[in-house]
Amino acid sequence: MNLSTTQLDTARPADEGSEIRGLLRQSLETLLSRIYSFEQRSAGRASPGREVEGAWEAYAELGLLALTLPEEHGGFAAELADIAMAAELMGGSMTVEPYRPTMVAARLIAAAGAPDQQARWLPGVASGTVRAALAHEEGSGRLAAPIAAAAVREGEGWRLSGRKTVAAGGDNADVFVISALTDGETVLFAVPAGAVKRRAYRCFDWTGAADLDLDGLVLPADALMPGGGDALARALDEATALACADAVGAIRAANRLVREHTGTRKQFGRSLDSFQVLQHRMVDMAIAEELAAPIAESAIKACELAAPADRARAVSAAKVKVGDSARLVGQECVQLHGGMGLTQEYPASHLFARLGLFERAHGDRDDHIERYAALMSR
Amino acid sequence: MYTEEEEAFAAEVRAFVRENCPETVREKVIGAMRITSDERRAWHRALHARGWAAPHWPAEYGGTGWSAVQTYIFAETLSEEGAPDLGSFGLKMLGPTLMRYGSDEQKARYLPRILSGEDYWCQGFSEPGAGSDLASLKTHAEFDGTHWVVNGQKMWTTMAHEANMMFALVRTDPSAPKPQMGISMLLIDLATPGIDIRPILLLNGERTTNEVFFDNVRVPAENLVGEPHKGWTYSRVVLGNERLSIARIGLNRRQLAKLKRIADADGLLDAPLFRARVVAAEIELTALEAMAVGMLERARAGLAPGIEANMLKIKGSELQQTLAQLLAEALGRRAAPYGADAIDPERPWAAALFKSHFDTRVVTIYGGSNEIQRNIIAKTLGLGAAR
Ligand SMILES: Cc1cc2nc3c(=O)[nH]c(=O)nc-3n(C[C@H](O)[C@H](O)[C@H](O)COP(=O)(O)OP(=O)(O)OC[C@H]3O[C@@H](n4cnc5c(N)ncnc54)[C@H](O)[C@@H]3O)c2cc1C
């Protein structure tokens, strides 16, 4: 089964970058159909590196890792929407490499890092030799929970304390952007991964992550990034919006898979998709997809153009709606497959896991309802 | 809801579990972690020694002769306390079927061995092409004068790799006018030559279920249950035999308690949105319990359960899924890590919660999917019959 030969039919408004995006999309689709069939993914995730061999290098070759980064550091002028396009296709193929985490952290270094920090890390990201990850969430990752990680001055530099949990892409990251509090203010550090104590593991959806133990981590003065809380807030919204794009890709893939299965599987002498009750369920899944895709796009646009409060509202709205669609489609994808929906050798359960963990990441439904409520106009 | 005597009985059962089932095992069960087959067997022996391995069985076969309510309280208390499940295949499905349709020899041979745990059974009904439409099964057996010779493939055969026996549905009369009429039930020793058991891995990486291939497997004539070609009728009894316990009220109550514990530790029970969902789940559970008790009272009065049992299966399984989802939600982002490397020493149970959210998806699929249950209810309600 090849999940990656996606034919997306979303109409996109003609904008300046749309031509490049179209070409990029085609190249990525071609790449994924060549190296990322479900079987190739299975072989990759089960290998010691837990990735599809050569995938990261291929992303770099296509220029995906350079998108939006400063040109003087090997980057390529582009829009967040280009990264989102890639994220959506990768969601459909359920790629396990840390593309989104790396791009979010790299963009944060570009936005908030000192020139030296940018020069040190960004060329490597753009060329595919450096992976980056943002280590911000703690504990359950509730949106409103204050961070507890702290930075205190020590001599010229800093001493950190605290823990970061489930940093996406943290298992193989070369550089972490770590958030901490100092005098009640959020500060960011760019830290080579070798300096940090980490526990690396995989998640239920086979993507990698890590917990970081910051206690006793001593950093030189130049680890501090000039930008702070505002840049972080933007990065977190971008991460959320990109995760929505990934989920939209997985939702599309799940709907295709279910229709294919129920169209071919026969019980009681009829194909499953001839039972009206199942037809209605698949119609609801199709509606969920149609609802999710445009609101995810709006969130990406808001990240690029809107003022912080509007951006936050758009992103929270997307997280709630895409989350609802993800839940419905992920669960029905398993149910309508019957037993096949649970096996490791078939994509349905993997899509359930990807969509289920999307719900758990970047703040859950309640968090975003609350954030939206606080910003809602009367 | 319960009488004083019934409450006292529940207390007695609770004390027995705590004394005879090691805490480590109960913690694993509550944490949705796998227990070993040795741990399950040890618990089976403890129950058997107390005469409680099959309380729902008639006393003449080694059951307790308890009332329906007592049997229900017993099962739910075990579940609440985290006692391992002994498995339904022998005790709940095949046992009662043999009592009703088995030969005297079959009863004498198999029932005591089910009761003691000496035999462990699996259920060979489903096939690749026969899931919801079970009657379309293709595995077939021909009689050669002394033996039934079985060929074909079963699928989703849970615990086949730990079981030593299988009760299976096989086609014995391909020319029967209706597919349901040409099926027999065979008792198959899994040590017989020609049987190949292959694992099916679920996404959680665990082997719970299997494919089983039959290549000229010879099953002695005396291992056919009841009469030839009547297996379909018997299978309806097998599938109907778990009615009251399938809603897993006790399990749901245990999960609700765990949810509250985890959510409270994180201050989530004070978060209005989350709290409201926990409250809704508790109210749903209360409603289901009341429904189950109503069914028990009818059972006490000697009435057979009707479609309320199908309804209870639907709602009980949905509630199991809601609670599993809420448990994963309570962990937030910490629900994601999985596998040996991911075990957080401070919360070893956390890595199992998303897994159990996933595992619980099966409860609306097996035992007759919820769609099939709804079809049965619709038919029983006479919907569309007036045409
Ligand atoms: C973990 C696991 C363990 C199992 N253990 C056992 C076991 O030990 N022994 C055994 O014999 N079997 C076992 N099963 C099999 C189980 O009983 C079947 O999976 C179940 O009967 C559904 O069949 P199916 O998987 O072929 O799905 P299908 O029958 O292909 O159904 C797919 C979907 O279509 C729906 N559907 C089908 N027909 C209709 C209809 N007419 N109207 C509306 N909707 C319909 C179903 O509800 C389902 O949502 C197990 C399954 C699993 C996943």
UniProtKB/TrEMBL annotation, chain A:
Could you tell me the superkingdom of the organism this chain comes from?
A: Bacteria
**Residues of the Acyl-CoA dehydrogenase/oxidase C-terminal domain:** 231-365
| InterPro entries recorded | Acyl-CoA_Oxase/DH_mid-dom_sf, AcylCo_DH-like_C, AcylCo_DH/oxidase_C, AcylCoA_DH/ox_N, AcylCoA_DH/ox_N_sf, AcylCoA_DH/oxidase_NM_dom_sf
**Which key words are in the record?**
FAD, Flavoprotein, Oxidoreductase
The Acyl-CoA dehydrogenase/oxidase N-terminal domain, residue ranges: 50-128
**Family affiliation:** Belongs to the acyl-CoA dehydrogenase family.
Q: What is this protein called?
A: Acyl-CoA dehydrogenase family protein
Please name the source species.
Answer: Sphingomonas canadensis
Automatic annotation (TrEMBL), chain B:
Q: Does the keyword Thylakoid apply?
A: no
Chain ranges of the Acyl-CoA dehydrogenase/oxidase C-terminal domain: 230-381
What the entry lists under Pfam families is as follows: Acyl-CoA_dh_1, Acyl-CoA_dh_M, Acyl-CoA_dh_N
Top-level taxon of origin: Bacteria
Which co-factor is required?
A: FAD
InterPro entries tied to this protein: Acyl-CoA_Oxase/DH_mid-dom, Acyl-CoA_Oxase/DH_mid-dom_sf, AcylCo_DH-like_C, AcylCo_DH/oxidase_C, AcylCoA_DH/ox_N, AcylCoA_DH/ox_N_sf, AcylCoA_DH/oxidase_NM_dom_sf, Mycobact_Acyl-CoA_DH
Indicate the segments forming the Acyl-CoA dehydrogenase/oxidase N-terminal domain, all copies. Answer: 3-118
Going by the UniProt record, its keywords in alphabetical order are: FAD, Flavoprotein, Oxidoreductase
Domain Acyl-CoA oxidase/dehydrogenase middle residue range list: 122-217
Its family? Answer: Belongs to the acyl-CoA dehydrogenase family.
Instruction: Kindly provide the name given to this protein in its UniProt entry.
Output: Acyl-CoA dehydrogenase family protein
Q: What is the species of this protein?
A: Sphingomonas canadensis
